[in-house]
Amino acid sequence: MTGASELLTSLGTLKDVTGILGSFVVTDDGRLVAREIPAMFDDTALAEAGGRLTRLRDTFAAVGDRLDVAVVRFRDHKLYLKTIGAGMLCIVAEGAVNMPALRMAANLVGRRIVPALERAAQAPAPPPVVDPPSAPARVSAQAPPGMRRFRGRAVE
Amino acid sequence: MSSGASRELGTVAVTSEPAVGFHAQLHGASLWDLVQMECLARSRRVVEVTGEGGVGYLYFDAGRVVHASTLRNRGKLAAFEILGWTHGTFQASHRSWPSTPTIEMSPESLLLHAAKQHDEQGASNLVAFPARGGDAAGELLEEIELLEIGEDDDTLARGPETGEEGEMSMRTPNTDETPIPPSAPRAENAADFPVMVRLSSNGAVLRNKGGTEELAEATAYAHRLVQLTGELLGLEEFVSLECTFANERFIVFTEGDGDIVALRPRPDLNLQALRERLGL
Prior knowledge:
The complex is a heterodimer. Chain A is of the alpha+beta class.
């Protein structure tokens, strides 16, 4: 099993938890190395988000706080961030997700993907982003419940 | 109410004060009537209220209650405390004014909150907060801030006659008051949050207790980063950011007025009650 498929398989298991919409992994330098999330979250958006989230971790590091976990609550969704090895696991979930189950699943997946993530992080060239086979090229019309805008555009 | 008028709540004797205008003696008048009347009249006045909880002051200006103070509280909490008293007297006072208002809410909202709090007092000593939205976060923070500020409230330009000891001596002797412990139990108090930072929406530090300037900057930047991330991913309306570090936690949330609030709780503090009160 390649590193990318290892990551993808592990991320897929997160969806056992009801309310988890998907997940992605970024390296310490903000590179997107794996994703298991609906296609409406395009690679560019995830990469940009990944860059910002690593800067979030760096922001706290600058004042002496080493980020372990962050939960960002939005009106209808949660973004769960877990620092792992050479990067960060990012999980997008519905607001009503079962948080204890999410935390446990994130711990297990986080532990499992450390080796693959470190290999991906050490790769000289940015590794290709793993897309789901049926990923359409543009934003899907089907938005997760409660989601009304995507990258500044209205989503029906 | 005319200047110098004094009124009676319940059956307590009226304090008389020579002044221009009518001298009222209304048995059965309530503080709620007082608030409504003063706000309707849009008067600028300080009213001294003596009730079962001691002495308190309500500051009216331009149709609003802009400040309140009691022995234990300032601002909204003091107003709620006073409005919870059921009998006593009130009269105009020449107490000095605060340099800045401490109550922003409308009189209607103030009365509603006081009513809700009063209704729930039988079951709990906690101030009642809505489960979600509104100004729950702001109220919580104000409660924490007020607990912290205590007698060091520098927003008040106090006159020489307005010391807290004087207020204590003005307690009405003929009320059936039950002594209130100096510190009622609460779910959270100032000691539970060693660090508390409040920033305006444009990043100006409005209050910083225990935090460094760098932490305020980090808070402002972190807030912006998660806001942008949410917009990017279509996850609208940032509510809060809760971080877990090696030994500590850090919570950032946005208030209804756009202020950004950051709290660093004690490491062993159970945050569930706080989350519930903030509607998280």
